[in-house]
Amino acid sequence: MRAVIQDGVRELRLADLDEPGSEATAKIRTRAVGICGSDLHMYRSRAEPQSQPGGHEIAGELIGLPAAYHGPLAVGDLVAADTICLGTACGTCEYCRAGAPLHCRHPAAAFQRGGFAEVFECKPEGLFKLPAGMSAEGGALVEPLAVAVHAVRLADIPSGASVAVVGAGTIGLMTLIAARALGVGRIDVLARHDHQAALAAACGATTVYRNPPESLEADYVFETVGGNAASLEQSWQLARRLGKVLAVGAFLGRQPVDLWTPLARELTVTFPNCYGSKDGRDDFDVAIDLIARGHVPAERIVTHRFTLEQAADAFRTADDKSSGSIKVQLQS
Predict the structure, then answer these.
(1) Mean pLDDT across 225-236
(2) 131: which DSSP letter?
(3) Residue ranges of E strands in 102-168
(4) How confident is the model at residue 112 (pLDDT cuts 50, 70, 90)?
(5) What percent of the chain lies above the pLDDT cut of 90?
(6) Residue 248: which domain range?
(7) Do 228 and 244 fall into the same domain?
(8) What is the value of pTM for the model shown?
(9) Is residue 283 a part of any domain in this protein?
(10) Would you say residue 279 lies in a domain?
(11) Orientation of helix 283-292 relative to helix 142-155, angle to 10°
(12) Helices then strands (H, E): number in the chain?
């Protein structure tokens, strides 16, 4: 099969690899895979050559199941894949039973072959059948939306509370959509780029700011940018005293960060990570339902579409916000 391999900083190539063949996993033909912010972090910084493809925002066609599998999935189903949590979790430890498979004590050996390839593998437990009428393009948005759903559900936002979202990239927009769909009233969004601001307004933001006024404060602040501490410190300033900050963005390595402001304001700071389940319902299921009910304008969030052979152009486009990109996908 063909797969996209990173050879160095911003260096990608199309390689020929053997298809995955584990007897314990399902095989899925990739139909759409998004380029995530974490993929871009690696694209910009990883110098050592890789031997296997990345890519975890995936939807595809199920082409093979383990012989021992007896469940609702069938070959030919269009599925969204959780390759990070349920796709590797044991399912039996206390964290798995509590709906937190990310913290599984006995995960299977990580499957290194992600969705930047013609075929990928995943445990069947990590596959979610998409409803009739949902496209692979929409299905590949399930994973980033599940990240936002997880954060919003974890926050337990009461009726009437105010929310601010720092960032209007994919995760910021998904957080806005999830919060709006799950019943939050006022949601202010901070956007860095004009095209992000326009889409945030279209997705239901109460107000969109490029430079928020000093008077703006919210009960709950969702930081969705990551990378360095600047956006986290901005979140401290936006949270009211005794408020709550949820750091959804990924911060790589150590960060020098102001801790006096959250101390002085007695903020509660939480770091939601990936997804799981709450009240017996998986975040992926909630995300699929929100997309199926039309809460997610996939045709606007997915701004650029490329083939696998065009992966180098796709990453350059995703890396350059002057391109107007929000979500860039590889599709087949």
Answers:
(1) 92
(2) P
(3) 119-122, 127-129, 163-166
(4) low
(5) 92
(6) 145-270
(7) yes
(8) 0.96
(9) no
(10) no
(11) 110
(12) 11, 17
